[in-house]
Amino acid sequence: MKVAVIGGGPAGYVSALTARRAGAEVLLIEKEELGGTCLNKGCIPTKTLIYSLELLEKIKSQKYNPKMSLCDISINLSTLMHNKDIVVESQKKGLSILLKQSGVKIIRDEAELIHPKTVLLKQTLEKIQFDKIIVATGSRPAELPMLSFDGERILSSDDLWKMKDIPQSITIIGAGAIGCEFAWIFNLLGSKVTLIELMPRVLPMEDEEISRALERLLKKRKIEFYTGVKIDDLKKKDETIDINLSNGKTVSSEMILVSVGRAYNTELIKNSGVKLGTRGEIIVNEHMQTNLEDVYAIGDVNGKWLLAHVAYREGEIAGKNIMGESLKMKYNVIPSTIFTISEVASVGLKENEALQEGIKVRKGVFPFRAIGKAHVIGEIDGFVKVIAEADTDILLGAHIIGPKASELIHELALAVKLKARAKDLKDLIHSHPTLSECIGEAIADIYGEAIHKVEK
Question: Where in the sequence numbering do the catalytic residues fall?
């Protein structure tokens, strides 16, 4: 079996490794850098910056001997970027070694699918025949009509990695996951940050109580935000860009970051017969197969869930299916994580979704400030919220805003996946002192039995 994988991001390289380990001859074609957006311009760079900046923030907030100079530590952007580069390069090197040792052949070129089984390499003009082809070309930042990227003052999330100086002020268009994460980064860097969101609240795809909690934290950090507004027009001045909003407000800043979603990289398949959806995504079935039997599409480019960990699983599914298996991709229990002022994580149904489906629910909510470990680490904001079906006691969903939410969510994700009853989790003993105690207390709150909560 001869397989071509086009794109070396999370979806692409996992599918290449999976197919190779199943015995296929695999050629991985990547025109830029291994690891895709996630490793080079997204997940890893942003989290490296956030970790460094939060560590500095925590040191500054501690009460040390006045004679100590720890609080005089300043931010140096070039040092932060250099540290980010070290992490990224280390990961890329490791990925390259893994692929080569596994027997995956890597070609640095741009590919075009000119036939269901033929790939054209654009640089060498070589045409190569394959038995199966996996398209994993990812996505790119989407533009707005009046906010075309110029790489200097109107930026995409990709452009930020070329930044040499910290702006005094920045306006971020879009208060979804990417917008909120960069709002936190620039706030920690010392910039004046303003968020603008078309939807009625920040993180509009999250549970409403979680969104409102984050809005309170944004206010606490003096990050301005305007929700439920449109951009009427903008004016570029010598030092600032003025944005006039539909609510009559005018926002001025040095730079604008546009984070309103992603556009799909489907140019390579335009002459192949692969069908696209209404948003420009490649249409696939639950086996990750396109309308062409021997062509698969995985990761961001199929428009399902634009998350690296989803891309990993889709890559595994596609890699096994092209080798004769018949696995189906399931999207019903996927943890979502966002790294902003307080981490946000969720899995399963939101409360309003359950109610819209006519499901009667019972919920439990418990604050981190009532947990000793939260005080130990100095992060007491936020809460855990769990939702169970009233009739069956089966856990339907969970939502967290608070410290280490991205790690804590997986206990609850497993419970949702296994259709566990809330009572089963209630009987689980959580170690003390840990943040996970908040999960146990939130589950107990479904029954009005949270120990460290005053019942009203």
Answer: 432
Cα separations in angstroms, 423 against 177, 351, 383, 392, 447: 32, 19, 20, 10, 9
Look up the pTM and report it. 0.93
Residue with tokens 């027009």: 233
Domain assignment present for residue 327? The answer is no
Structure tokens at 255: 């730079």
Output helix, strand, coil percentages for the chain, rounded to the nearest 5.
35, 25, 40
List average pLDDT for each run of 10 residues in the chain, which is 456 residues long. 97 98 97 96 96 89 60 83 96 97 97 93 94 97 91 94 94 97 97 97 96 97 97 91 96 96 94 94 98 97 97 98 96 96 96 94 97 94 98 97 98 97 94 97 96 80
In one letter, which amino acid is 215? E
Task: For the chain, give the number of residues.
Answer: 456
Distances (CA, A) of 382 to 2, 61, 142, 245: 51, 19, 31, 31
Tally of CB atoms within 10 A around 360: 9
| Token output for 401 | 């805003």
CA-to-CA dists, residue 424 to 232, 334, 443, angstroms: 53, 21, 9
Residues 291 and 220 both lie in one domain: no
Domain of residue 214, residue span: 154-258
pLDDT of residue 198: 96
Distance CA 9, CA 311 (A): 9
Instruction: List strand residue ranges (DSSP E) for 207-350, in order.
Output: 224-227, 231-236, 241-245, 250-253, 255-258, 262-264, 295-297, 336-338, 344-348
Q: Is residue 143 within 8 Å of 65, Cβ to Cβ?
A: no
Q: Rounded CA gap, 357 and 193, in Å?
A: 38
Residues 119 and 191 in one domain: no
Whether 242 and 277 map to the same domain: the answer is no
